[in-house]
Fold this sequence. Notes:
Layout: H1 2-62, H2 66-79, H3 84-98, H4 101-114, H5 119-132, H6 136-149, H7 155-166, H8 170-183, H9 190-199, H10 206-211, E1 219-228, H11 232-239, H12 251-256, E2 259-264, H13 279-282, H14 295-300, E3 304-306, H15 316-329, E4 333-335, E5 337-338, H16 341-345, E6 348-352, E7 355-363, E8 378-379, H17 384-395, E9 400-406, H18 417-428, E10 433-437, E11 445-448, E12 451-454, E13 459-461, E14 471-480, E15 484-496, E16 499-502
Parallel strand pairs: 1-2, 1-13, 2-3, 3-4, 7-9, 9-10, 10-12
Antiparallel strand pairs: 1-14, 5-8, 6-7, 11-12, 14-15, 15-16
Amino acid sequence: MVDRAARRAFDRRMRDVKDGIYTLLLVAALVTALFISTVVLPPQIAAWRSRRSTDEAQTLFAEGKVIEAMGLLKYAVALDPGNELAHFDLAVLRLAVDGDAAAAAGGFKRAVKADGNFARAYYNLGVVQLFYLHKPRLAVENFERAAELEAGYAPSYAALGLAHEALGQYNAARDAYDRYLEVSPAGPWAGLVKQHRHAIGGLPAVDDLAAKMRFDEDVFEIVAVGDMSLARGVNVGLYSGRPESPLRYVAPLISRAQVAFGNLESPLTKRAKRAPTKGPRGGSIYLKGNPDFAFLLTEAGFDVLSLANNHVMDYGEQGLADTIYYLEQEEIKHAGAGPNLAAALAPARLDVDGYVIDFIAFSGVSPKDFIAGPAKAGSAPLDEGTVVGAIARAKGEANLVVVSLHWGSESMAYPSSEQKRLAHKFVDAGADIILGHHPHVIQGVESYDGAVIAYSLGNFLFDTRYPERRYSTLLAIEVSRSKGILGFRLIPIYIYDTEPVVSGERPATDFVDFALLSGAGGRVRVARPEPSAREVPPAR
C-alpha cells in the first residue's frame, strides 16, 4: 500500500512538473511571438513599406507627378530614417523643385549617414557644397570619398578638379583632371575638363605663388587687400564649429610677404551699446566682430590695418578703444582712428630691417559724428589739406609712405574724376602707394609717376549676398630698398561663402579679367557668369 501511494504521489508530482514545463514553454512562445510582433517585425515592415514607397515615388516622378513623389518620399524617410535611397531622391527633388540647397545638402548627408558607402550621395553632396553653398573645402572631401568608393565614376574627378581649382590648388586640380581623362577620355565632360586643364596649365598653386615672393637684402614685397570684417556671416561661420580659419587658403600669400595690410571694417568688441546715431550718411548697418577671433588676423600674417572707415565707431568710443586694445594685444599696428584727431593722424610705422614704412589712413565716407576731433574719438577725415599735411610729415621721416583711403561709392566699378584728381594730388605730395576701399568691388590699379594707386581693392574677408562683391584681388607690390617701387602684380581672389581663395582664370567661367589701366579708365572688369551647377550636374 505504501509503495502504491508513494508512486501515485510521485506520478502526480511529475505531471505537475510537466504541466509547469509546458506552461513555461507556452509563455515563452507567447512572449517570443509578442516580441517579434511588437519589436522585430514593425521596423522590418516599416523598412519594407519605406522601400516600396521609394519605388512608387520614382514611378510618380517618371510620370511627372513631382509633388506627389516628394510627399511619398517624405513618408518613406519618416517610416525608415535609414532608407538612404529615399533621402537621396528627396534631396535631389528639393534641389531641383524647391531650389533649397541647404535642405538638399542635409538630405545627402543623411543618405551617407545611412550608407557610408553610397558613392553617388557623396558626389551629389559635393556638387551642392561647391556650386550652391560655395564651400569648396567640404566639397573636396566628399568628391574624394566618392572617387575612393567608385573609382570608375569619372564625374567625381571632374568635380574634384573644379573644387581644387576654386581653392587655388592647381596642382591637385591638374591631377584630378588628368584622372578624369584617363578614366573617360571621350566622356561627356571631356571637353570641359580639357578647357580647364589647359586654362590652369601655367597657373601656380598658392604655395608656389607664396614661394616666389621676393625677400632678399634689397627687395621685399608688400601685400594689400580690401575690406575685412569679423562680423555677421563671418562671425556665424566661426561659431558654427568651423575648425579652421576662413583665411587659411590665402594665408601663405599674406604671411610670406614682409608687410601685409588690410582695412578692418568691423570694430572688435563685446559691447552691446551701439552708437546713438550714424546720421543720414551712416545708414542702418552696424558691424561688430568678436575679439576672441582677432588672433586669426595675426595667424594669417597681417602686420598693419586701417581703422579709418564708416563702421569703426558703430559701437561708440568704447568700441573703438576695445578694437585698438585687442589689435595691440595681437601686436598688429593700426592707423586712421584713435581717441583724438592727433592719434587718428599718427602713422603706423613698420621697420623692415632699417627701411621705414609709414601707413596713414583716412575716411571720406564716415558719418559726421564718427570723425575725430581734438578731444573726440573717431576716424581721420579725408580732407585734402589734412591728407597732404600728413603725407608731408611722414615723408620727412619714412622711406616709403602708404596712404589708405576709405572713399568712393559702393558697388561702383569706376573711381570718380574727383578721386583720380585727389590720388594724383597725394602722389604729388609724396605718397608712394595709395590703397582704396569701401566700394566693396574691385576698381582699377594705376601707375602714376612711379607710385601705385589701387582705387578699390574690393572685399576680402566679408559676407555678401551680391555676386559682384565676391570678386576681389590681392595686390602684391615689389619694393627695392635702394630703388623704391619696382612693380606690382594682382592675384585674383574669389570669396566662397566667407572664405577668400585664389581663383583660376578659366575660359568657361572667368572669375576676373584684370584690365590694368592708366589714368583714363581706372577699372578692372568683372566677367560673368559665376560658376554654375550645370558644369557638373548631379548624378542620377
